[in-house]
Amino acid sequence: MVTSGSSTRHRELAVRRPAARLVPVLVCFALALFVAGCSKSASSTPQSGGSSSATTPSTSTSASPATTTGSGVPTYDVFVKNFTYHGMPKTVPANTPIMVSFTNKESFAIQHEFVVLKLTGGKTAQDVIKDAKKKGPDAEDDWVHVADSGDPLDTDASTVVTMDLAPGNYVATCWQTGKAGGGSGPPHVAIGMIAPFTASTSATASSTAPLPNYDTYVKNFTYHGVPKTVPANSPFLITFTNKESFAITHEFVVLKLTGGKTAQDVIKDAKKKGPDAEDDWVHVADSGDIDTGSSVTIPMDLPPGNYVATCWQTGKAGGGSGPPHVTIGMIAPFTASTSATAPSGAAPVAYPVFVKNFTYHGMPKTVPANTPIMVSFTNKESFAIQHEFVVLKLTGGKTVQDVIKDAKKKGPDAEDDWIHVADSGDPLDTASSTVVKMDLPPGNYVATCWQTGKAGGGSGPPHVAIGMITEFTAK
Fold first, then answer.
1. What are phi and psi of 38, to 5 degrees?
2. What would the mean pLDDT of 158-184 be, rounded to a whole number?
3. What's the CA gap between 327 and 150, in Å, rounded?
4. For the sheet containing 433-439, what is the strand order?
5. Nearest of 435, 386, 436, 381 to residue 412 by alpha carbon
6. What are phi and psi of 378, to 5 degrees?
7. Which residues contact 101 (CB under 8 A, 6 or more apart)?
8. In this model, does residue 72 exceed pLDDT 80?
9. Domain's final residue, options 277, 311, 337
10. What CATH number does the domain containing 102 carry?
11. Region 408-435 average pLDDT
């Protein structure tokens, strides 16, 4: 990602999953993230053995009814208690965006996650369990990943996972290894934290109002538009735009304040420790790096409590590095309350896009600017290969051919020469789908793929250099 004047540590827009924190952290809303022991698979075929005759763990006797946003996005309320998923339906709609509002409702301090795997070749939930028991957390890499809640989720925390699934069989899984009372044990999936379900074209859900959306932005190192109160225990969206008049990278990192801590405690800690202080706080949402002129839409689902939006970037106007922006005013306290009322939601426009023969199909030439949109992106190649959907902003008269020329000259490293505004996250295996959320200022953009795999295996030039690029305009 182009850092635009920031010298802080690199963080991908859609990938931010630290291997360790001083305190447990929550998920940043992205669709595929990594951590030690929870890294995502690049393989398309499980390496584990055959089926087991053991009984599949029970998830819950009743699944949550699906509601939908005004854009037709079914939403399911799912939680974990006693190392068991509750509320996950047996069937969800295929080939359409869906949301899972996932909450960790354990009665003790522990971290969980919601990692969705696709079952292929007749594999079952028991094959996943057997593999996890044999290999431990490393077994996660044997399976095809299609969605992920991101950073491990602390007790009483929530997040929203967005996916778009091809018809087939899936399992929700947790690969965390913590035990009640502390310490480590087997992956939770190995002790029953797995929920099988099917994506079907015949599944339906009732309609309801769109998700509420709050328009926020930063200018002069200050957040604007952050509400004082948001609805608790209910999904909503934050659209965040970097409106600085100079080149710099900002972010919208939401921390939960516990134990009577306040915004001033966060600022004091940041002044003392610098960017490392970020790891002292409980994370609940994260925009990723946002360059000047770029926007992102962040879904959240927060328990009642006190929170702050913060920026830990260190770039200065004109270039170079300085203190974290949170210490010079870029912090906004707010509360999540069950009594809060929310603005009417705007139904995000959704576009089904897929790749076949190293070519994007279905991406419109024009999308609405300054409004949330979603791209349901599917890898429909007829052979095993990984693709992605990375959106770059074209500035200074640059064109598609400039991107291609740069990719041919520098290879995958050329990706860092361009301004990123959206990213599908981990490389997407054949027959897998995901949802990319964006909110774009007016301008010219390209969707690109920087993966280097070839049909039949091996590596080659970035796919963008051989035609996997499509131009569009936001207006």
1. -140, 30
2. 91
3. 27
4. 359-361, 349-356, 372-379, 433-439
5. 386
6. -125, 140
7. 75, 76, 77, 78, 158, 159, 160, 235, 301
8. no
9. 337
10. 2.60.40.420
11. 88
Chain centroid to CA 182: 27
The CA radius of gyration of the chain, in Å to the nearest whole number, is 21
Nearest-angstrom CA–CA distance, 343 and 346: 9
Sort strands 194-200 and 91-93 into parallel, antiparallel or unpaired. Answer: parallel
Contact assessment for residue 60 and residue 88, using Cβ atoms and an 8 Å cutoff: yes
**Backbone phi, psi, residue 190, to 5°:** -75, -15
The domain tally of the chain equals 3
Q: What are phi and psi of 235, to 5 degrees?
A: -65, 140
196 shares its domain with 240:
no
pLDDT (0 to 100) of residue 68: 42
CA distances from 330 to 14, 93, 223, 275 (A): 22, 41, 6, 13
How far, CA to CA in Å, does 430 sit from each of 27, 42, 254, 290? 26, 11, 34, 29
Which domain covers residue 384, as residue numbers?
349-474
Per the document, the length of the chain is 475
Give the pLDDT confidence of 299-330 residue by residue, as tens digits: 788 889 999 999 999 999 888 999 999 999 99
Mean pLDDT of 381-394: 94
Of 68-77, 169-178, 361-370, 399-408, the one with minimum mean pLDDT is 68-77
Q: Which residues of 115-150 are buried (b: 16+ CB within 10 A; e: fewer)?
A: bbbbbeeebbbbbbbbbbbebbbebbbbbbbbbbbb
Consecutive H or E run containing 232:
none
Residue 45, both tokens? 């075929």
DSSP 321: B
Domain boundary among 147, 169, 200: 200
Which pTM does this prediction carry? 0.57
CA 411 to chain centre: 26
Q: Are 193 and 117 in contact (CB under 8 A)?
A: no
Is residue 298 located within the same domain as residue 362? no
Nearest Cα neighbor of 63 from 47, 42, 79, 81 is: 79
In the structure encoding, which two tokens stand for residue 118, read together? 């696709």
Q: Tokens at residue 260, please?
A: 């009577």
Specify whether 169 is located in the same domain as 287: no
- Spatial CA neighbour of 72 closest among 257, 272, 209: 209
Residues 138 and 252 in one domain: no
